[in-house]
Structures are given as structure tokens and as C-alpha cells.
Amino acid sequence: MLIAANPIPILNSYLNTYGDTLIMYIGGVRPTLLTRDPGLVQHILQKNHRNYPKSELSHGIARYLGHGLLTSEGSYWLQQRRLIQPGFHRQRVAGLVELMQAEINECLKPLKRQLAQEGGSTEVEVHRLMTTTAFRIIARSTFSTNLDNAKLERMSALLTAIQAFYVRSIRQPYLRPWLALRNQFRQHDELATELREMVRSYVRQRQQTDDSYDDLLQMLLDVRYEDTGAPMTEEQVVDEALILLVAGHETSANALSWMWYLLAQHPSVVAQMRADMTQVLCDRSAAFADLPNLGYSLQIVQETMRLYPPAWIVDRVAQEDDSYNGIRLPKGTMISAYLLGIHHAPSLWEDAEAFRPERFAPEQMKQQPPYAYIPFGGGPRLCIGNQFALTEMQLVLLEMLRRFDIDWVEQPPIQLQPLITLRPRQEIRLRFRSRS
Ligand code: HEM
User: Which residues are noted in the entry as heme-binding (predicted)?
Assistant: First the structure.
């Protein structure tokens, strides 16, 4: 099977016809095993993970984004993961909630102004708003300082351009000679250097100040290797900070955009959420300690990521011959764990296409087989930012529902655009009304 610009409907129809695991060809040249079998996915990500490093699809982007946690491998990855993991523990994330709330407030100010000018009701391009919001939250959580708008926009634009180019060069490998001829690789190397230098300037500014900070950058600067007691080099700090921006930006932005898309079509879910908010918060902003009492907000976020997992595919390659349940996995086999397919499989989910946050009520989830729900991946390379992301998304949900009513606007169904993350192909337009 050949992978086209919009592969998802094709992938789904093949899986429905031929079973949960099949061979496909990316760009018509490279055989890849695509699977929505949760058992096989657990096998490669967790049970036999040592045999399955990431493939060159993931490693290739290191050319532009450097060797941070997401792109590194083997003993270097393990050493970095051990070093950085404590910085993402629940309590550390709790400490970032104030920064997140402050940034959410900043992001909503222009919308509030617009609403005031337009008599309390306006149409909003939701994906654009959520992209800015998610980027500002991760940038602020990393660098604390109030970042200037122009620089933020430039950073975000650089990231988008680099990722789009990378996906194109992978999906359509036959274009590579043409891209090289047009100097595209060099131009994108230059964009990557510009991005890296921006991150480096924040790192240097921080090293030169005596003020104390409690953000992700400070965590990266403060950690020490257990064996030598040494800190990371500047290059390593830049690598890791850059990877946090990359990993934490589009993923959350897309999940949040899809969440509003779904909520605007399901007013009864919003009504249930508001009832819980009234009970727990009255009309104040949520603190970290409130979140366990607002479990439905987590369920909404979880169900959104079931239907629209931002990381829709996770790639690995077999290092040695292996097999799973009669499927041969010879050395060199590329494997794509098709998270989107698992999350929509009728064999795993009743009425799989329906948006029902109730599925994630704690007692319900216990009945799901392992690896039926894995928006953050699994095994040792499980997303390090999962707690951060869940917290951030719940805060955005609660803060926006507190301020606005959100109405559906008639529009054709929004299609999927599966790049590195699962974006909406068209802008999502919704009507926002101020709540008095
Ligand atoms: C909705 C939001 C997010 C989703 C769905 C998501 C999903 C994922 C997935 C599936 C992986 C594993 C990839 C693989 O195994 O090949 C991953 C890894 C990673 N994520 Fe996230 N992520 C999200 C948000 C974040 C945030 C906010 C951060 C940082 C603050 C972050 C940082 C990372 C890092 C550093 C890794 C690499 C971990 C490692 O390999 O050790 N992610 N993410």
C-alpha cells in the first residue's frame, strides 16, 4: 500500500479489510509494518523494548532539532531521562500551575477585548488561538520570563516550518533531489540554527542572572549527573530545552483544538462540566489542588485524545529478528504503532466514533485491555510531559468555560491532517460569547 498526502482513510480501510497488522510503503519505497494490535504495540514499546529503538523517521529530525530526549537513543537517552525525569514529577508540575494560569490569562486578553468591542459575541479561529496558547504555556513554563510576542511568534513559525519540511521530505522521498536542487535542505538548516540560537540566548541570559526561577530551564540547569556531579553542558541544555518546546507545543495545541470542536457539538457534556465547576470552584480559577475534584475535566481531555491522539503514530525498528503471535519481525523491520487506529478499533471501544467522556470514569477504565488507550505512548519512553500536558489542558478547559459560552457554527466536518502530530486540516470556527 502506498501512503498518500492524506493517509488515514486509506489506512483504516485496509486495516478493516485485512486485519490489525499489515505492510505498507511510505513514499512507495520503504516497507513498514503498521499495526493497531494493542498486544503487538505493548510488545515493541514495553515488553521487548530493548529490541525496538526508534527508527530513522524519529532520529532524522535531530538534524534540525538536536539530540534531546525525544530524538536520542541508547545509554545517552537513559542517562538524560534519569536526569530530567524528576523535573516532571507531579509536585514540580503543581509548581508550574501559576505560570500556566498567568499565561492562559494573557492569551485570552485579546479575545476578551474583541468580545467587548463586538457586543459580547464573536467568531473565533480556535486552532489558531489554541496554537498560540499552547506555545506560550510551554515557552513560559520553560523560560518563565514574559517573552516578547514577536520572538514567540518567530520561534513558533520556525518550528512549524521545520516540521512541515521534514514530514514532506520523509513522506515524499522521491522529491529529495528536487528539494536539494532548490537548496531547501540548506535553507531549513539555517532556520534550525536561528531557532537554536534563540533558545541559546535565553539559556545564556539565565546563566548571567542572580534572580531565582522555578521553571523547566532552571531545572535543566540545576540537575547534576549522579556519577560525576557535573551539570549538563550548554549544548545539552539547549538540546533539551528545544525538545521540550517541540514536544509540548503542537501536541497540546491540537488536542485542545479538537476538544473545543467536540465540546461545541456536545452541549450536554459542557453542561455537566459546568455543574461540577459550580460546585467545586463557584466562580474562581482552578488551583492544582482542585483538579482531583474536577475529574470530569480530565475525562473530557482523555476522550478527546482517544478520538484525536495528537501523536497518531509511534515508530520503531527491530534490531534483531523477533516474532509476536506468529507475526515475523525480522531485523530491520520498521514498525508504526498506529495509535489512532487502536483508539478507534470497534473491537476495543463500544460505539468507537462517539464522544463520550463517561468512558473514562475510573471504574470503566479498569475494564480496558492494556494498551487500548496510549495517547502518551508506553514503556520506558512514555511521554515525560504527560502530567504537565494533562494539567495544562484541564486548566485551559476550565478557565475558558469560566469566561465563555461556546457555540457550534455550521461548517463542513473538519478533516484530519496527519503530520508529525494530528492537526485539523481546516481552521475550526466557533462562536464565543462572554459570560456575564
Ligand atoms: C497532549 C500532549 C502530548 C502528547 C499527546 C504527547 C505524546 C507523546 C508520545 C506518544 C511520546 C512517545 C513517543 C515515542 O515513544 O516514540 C512522547 C514523548 C515525549 N514527550 Fe510528549 N506528548 C504531549 C505533551 C508533552 C509535553 C507538554 C511535553 C513537555 C513539557 C512533552 C515532552 C515529551 C518528551 C521530552 C518526550 C520524549 C521522552 C523520551 O523519549 O524519553 N510531551 N510524547
Answer: 383
- The C-alpha atoms of residue 300 and residue 305 are separated, in whole angstroms, by 9
Among protein residues, the one with the nearest Cα to ligand 1's atom 37 is 70
- How many CB atoms neighbour CB 242 within 10 A? 27
Taking only the tens place, the pLDDT of each residue in 18-59 is 999 998 876 556 689 999 999 999 999 999 999 999 998 888
Domain extents in the chain = 8-426
| For ligand 1, mutation pick of 57, 143, 251 (most atoms within 8 Å of CB) | 251
Q: Which amino acids bring their CB within 6 angstroms of ligand 1? A: 54, 69-70, 81, 138, 243-244, 247-248, 251-252, 255, 310-311, 314, 375-377, 381, 383-385, 388-389
Q: Are 430 and 404 in contact (CB under 8 A)?
A: no
Q: Please tell me the distance between residue 430's alpha carbon and the centre of ligand 1 in angstroms.
A: 28
Beta-bridge partners for 66: none
How high is the mean pLDDT of the chain? 93
Q: How does strand 30-35 pair with strand 334-338?
A: parallel
User: What number does CATH give the domain 8-426?
Assistant: 1.10.630.10
pLDDT, tens digit, for every residue of 143-183? 987 678 888 889 989 998 998 888 888 877 788 888 888 88
DSSP assignment of 282-324, as one string?
TTSPPPGGGGGG-HHHHHHHHHHHHHS-SS-EEEEE-SS-EEE
